Amino acid sequence: MHHGRFAPDDRRLLDAGVEAAFGKQRTAAGRILVGTQTLEQSLDIDADLLITDLAPMDVLLQRIGRLHRHQRTDRGAFAEARLVVLRPADRDLSALLGRVRERYGLGSAEHQGSPYPNLLTLEATLRLLEDNSVVTIPADNRRLVEGALHPEALAAIARSLGTDWQNHAARLAGAIYSDRETARSLSLDLSLPFCDLIFPDANDTIVTRLGGRDLLVDLDPAPRGPFGHAVARIHIPSWMAGTATGDGAPLPAVRDGDVVRFRLGERGFRYDRWGLARSD
Question: pLDDT tens, 253-265?
């Protein structure tokens, strides 16, 4: 299992283990790797078969880069690169425009977030995949990316699908405009002399698109983690931390069998070989 909720030291061990098992020097023995978007970049993975959830075309192409990455003669029945893309059982993605429980990480979900809120890019990607069962990489990259992400292509899909999809497009555009204005209000004009720069109020909380209000907490004493190394620091994603902020002081941690437990404010957490999770 490979995802973003592992301590930094354990993540380095996992990365090394994944590359040893799936990298250029791997053997032909069968094995399965399960992971999230953390596998898309920086790791030298050479998979024979790739099964993935639906994602925007540019993301899928990044994942395809982990399929048949090196020249090999021992792939057996997997001599031809094959990508299997899973989609919701109902082909009509319109249901994801509303408030539904099973989102599969697709579409906007204000209460828990979503890695792929733009349903138009997902609809465009799905259409391209349905029309192109065989693609050639990298020769088809530009056609596929522009067909799934170009504003004109997305606008045409929204018009063809009706009012609900056009409203979805308008909400996405509004969010982009809001983010742009927020960034502009917090940015520094570096063309000005330093003495003329206006810095944001020290009490303002400025977050990044990727980092959000994520927390990096220290544990004291540093317990032995699931892979045998001391775990002194853990990253808590913003959606898991909630409103908890911490005061920067190390958090007491206890080891319960193979599980490390600690608390941040009113929230309890557990950390084991499956990564970080809430425990209360």
Answer: 988 888 999 998 8
Tokens of 269: 């957490």
Q: Transcribe the chain into DSSP letters.
A: -B-S-S-HHHHHHHHHHHHHHHSTT--S------B-GGGSSS----BSEEEEE---HHHHHHHHTTBS-S--S--GGG-S-EEEEE--SSS-GGGGGS--S--TTBS--TTT--SB--HHHHHHHHHHHHH-SS--TTTTHHHHHHHHH-HHHHHHHHHHH-HHHHHHHHHHHHHHHHHHHHHHHH---TTS-GGG--PPPTT----BTTTBT-EEEEBSS--B-TTSSB--EEEE-HHHHTT----SSPBPEEEETTEEEEEETTEEEEEETTEEEE--
What is the Cα–Cα distance from 50 to 87, expressed in whole angstroms?
A: 14
pLDDT digits (tens, 9 = 90+) for 124-143: 999 999 999 999 989 999 99
Structure tokens at 12: 């380095």
Amino acid found at 155? A
96 contacts: CB under 8 Å, gap ≥ 6: 88, 103, 106, 107, 119
Q: What is the Cα 34 distance to its own chain's centre?
A: 14
The position carrying tokens 């540093």 is 222
What sign has the CA pseudo-torsion 101, 105, 107, 112?
Answer: positive
pLDDT in tens, 24-74: 888 888 899 999 988 987 889 999 999 999 999 999 999 999 999 999 999
